[in-house]
Design a protein that fits this description.
By secondary structure, the chain is of the alpha/beta class. Helix content is about 45%, strand content about 15%. The protein has a seven-stranded parallel beta sheet, sandwiched between helices. The longest helix has 29 residues, at about 95-125. The protein starts with 8 loop residues before the first strand and ends in a 7-residue tail after the last strand. The structure holds NADPH dihydro-nicotinamide-adenine-dinucleotide phosphate (NDP). NADPH dihydro-nicotinamide-adenine-dinucleotide phosphate binds next to α1 and α6.
Length: about 240
């Protein structure tokens, strides 16, 4: 049975490409009123051509003032998917300040900030809300060249738990999805080397990477009333990587 989000208002960040875009499309097709936030205008234009009901916000999530104004004016929302992130892989000894700052700002700071804005509105409106933060298997396992990425995703998992604790009394649920590699642009940039990807696939009991739809389905489940008693949890979409 398909989930229905008829009439629900949803904000999806990083919705121009990849997983975020697929989530925005799936929510819109399931009846939600979707606002898609991303950085590149051309991506948002093609998304709204594909799905005419979707509203778009073209913003850099690292710009706090712009986010405050635009997200504040676009709300309120009942559903929030914090999906945008950057993955700039560098050996630990070569991590740059700019990669660190950018990753902290987008992968962690923006999730905190957007969630504050959206949750305050949820509370003011008295609506039951659901927030899904897109984390990664990298939050729970050390991966070579991922010092900054693993750390920001680990911080995101913990942020989600504290949010779940503090927002629970307001009937707002907060969960994460933690996928293994998905062959989006981000996945292709970092995992196209056949030797590197084979080594990862060998550690995944199901023997393959995740598909975009695997991640979309889990996000929709956690946004829906089918997971009404689930908050503060991390749903692995890792083919068993974590237990291997
Ligand atoms: P993509 O790089 O394919 O897409 C990311 C989207 O986020 C793009 O539309 C991008 O816009 C947008 N975005 C990035 N930074 C900003 C910003 N500062 N402000 C606004 N929008 C921004 O990534 P995926 O779809 O692969 O990843 C989605 C999520 O899934 C991320 O949180 C990622 O960490 C996570 N994930 C991905 C995995 C993978 O292997 N692909 C595995 C596990 C987790 P633009 O291109 O214009 O910058």
């Amino acid at each position: 049975p398909h989930l229905s989000f008829r009439g629900r208002r949803a904000l999806v960040t990083g919705a121009g490409k990849g997983i975020g875009r697929a989530v925005a499309v799936a929510l819109s097709r399931a009846g939600a009123r979707v606002t898609a936030l991303s950085r590149t205008a051309a991506d948002l234009e093609s998304l709204t051509r594909e799905c005419p009901g979707i509203e778009s916000l073209c913003l850099d999530l690292a710009d706090w003032e712009a986010v405050e104004a635009a997200v504040g004016a676009a709300g309120p929302f009942e559903l929030l998917v914090n999906n945008a992130a950057v993955a700039e892989l560098q050996p630990f000894l070569e991590v740059t300040r700019s990669a660190l700052q950018r990753s902290l700002d987008v992968n962690f700071g923006a999730v905190l900030h957007v969630s504050q804005i959206v949750a305050r509105q949820m509370i003011a409106q008295g609506v039951q809300g659901a927030i899904v933060n897109v984390s990664s298997q990298a939050s729970k396992r050390a991966l070579r060249d991922h010092a900054v990425y693993c750390s920001t995703k680990s911080a995101l998992d913990m942020l989600s738990k504290v949010m779940a604790m503090e927002l629970g009394p307001h009937k707002i649920r907060v969960n994460t999805v933690n996928p293994t590699v998905v062959m989006t642009d981000m996945g292709r940039i970092n995992w196209s080397d056949p030797q590197k990807s084979a080594a990862m696939i060998n550690r995944i009991p199901l023997g393959k990477f995740a598909e975009v739809d695997d991640v979309v389905n889990s996000i929709l489940f956690l946004l829906s009333d089918k997971s009404a008693m689930t908050t503060g949890s991390s749903l692995m979409i890792d083919g068993g990587f974590l237990v291997s």
